[in-house]
Amino acid sequence: MGAIRTIPFVLLSAFWIVTVQGGIAGQDNRAAGTPSSVSPTPLQVPLGDGTPVLTDGLFSEGEWTDASSIELNSHVRLYFKQFRGVVFIGIRGRRQNGIGPSELSITAGGGPIHVLHVSLQLGEIVLPESGEAPPYRFGLTPGWYANEQRRDADEAKRLEQAGKSPIEVMTASAYPSDGIEFAIRRSKFPAQCWSIRLGISYLDGEKPSWMNYPTESVERSSERWQLVCFE
After folding, report:
1. 162 Cβ contact partners less than 8 Å away, ≥ 6 residues apart
2. Which of 6, 24, 63, 97 sees the fewest Cβ atoms within 10 Å?
3. What SS3 class is residue 215?
């Protein structure tokens, strides 16, 4: 059994730390295990109608109406579309600022697994087949971009000093966001299909939670990941 890693997230708030580390090193008890026999149905990513996605996390009206979508649970929905050599993947929460630090893992054509990280900074690593994962290289986003999860640090400090709860501090000081919007060049993974896995932190009411999609996937084997294919 491979090693379970704890990811050094650059967090929006200490409120997310237990959730994110718990999801990676605790709740994600499949991270280093064996995948089950359940495999999600392959997804054909539609060609968009040309409506641009401004990767600001706001899911503005009309940006994703030409996309296919998957409801993961009552709190999180995924979106997929492509246009002119760029693949757009959206992670939308049910409530504003309801999506926390998350990551998207991609492999294609038998190549290595790339992990694209989103929190207060963007970063990327390439996972080795075994052993300890390398540290994230923050600021490294070759061939992709997403919206960082921004906040007003001075306002957060003021609210903390005023005795506000961590959830109040996080929601009141964060830049308004509906979720995470990725834009990834097809040329970064030059294959007809990609295998993807997502680790998503989100708010379930006032409770921070973590999920992996597909739920039966494991971190270093793409056998049960979501297959997305392009025309």
Report:
1. none
2. 6
3. coil
- Using DSSP's 3-state secondary structure scheme, residue 206 falls into coil
Highest mean pLDDT pick, 5-9, 74-78, 147-151 = 74-78
Residue 178 covered by a domain: yes
Whether the CB-CB separation of 216 and 224 falls below 8 Å is answered with yes
What's the structural domain count of the chain?
Answer: 1
The answer on pLDDT for 86 being more than 50 is: yes
Q: How far apart are CA 60 and CA 78, in angstroms?
A: 15
What one-letter code names the amino acid at 168? Answer: E
Contact call for residues 75 and 81 (beta carbons, < 8 A): no
Spatial CA neighbour of 24 closest among 96, 86, 103, 113: 103
Residue 148: give its domain's CATH number: 2.60.40
With tokens 């963007």, the residue in question is 122
For strands 226-229 and 43-44, give the pairing.
Answer: parallel
Say what the pTM is. Answer: 0.84
Q: Higher confidence at residue 231 or residue 223?
A: 223
* Domain region containing 197: 14-229
Structure confidence by residue, pLDDT tens digits, 21-58: 444 433 343 344 444 456 789 999 999 999 999 999 99
List the structure tokens of 54.
């401004």
Contact 224, 217 (CB under 8 A): yes
3 part of a folded domain: no
Within 10 Å of residue 142's Cβ, how many Cβ atoms?
8
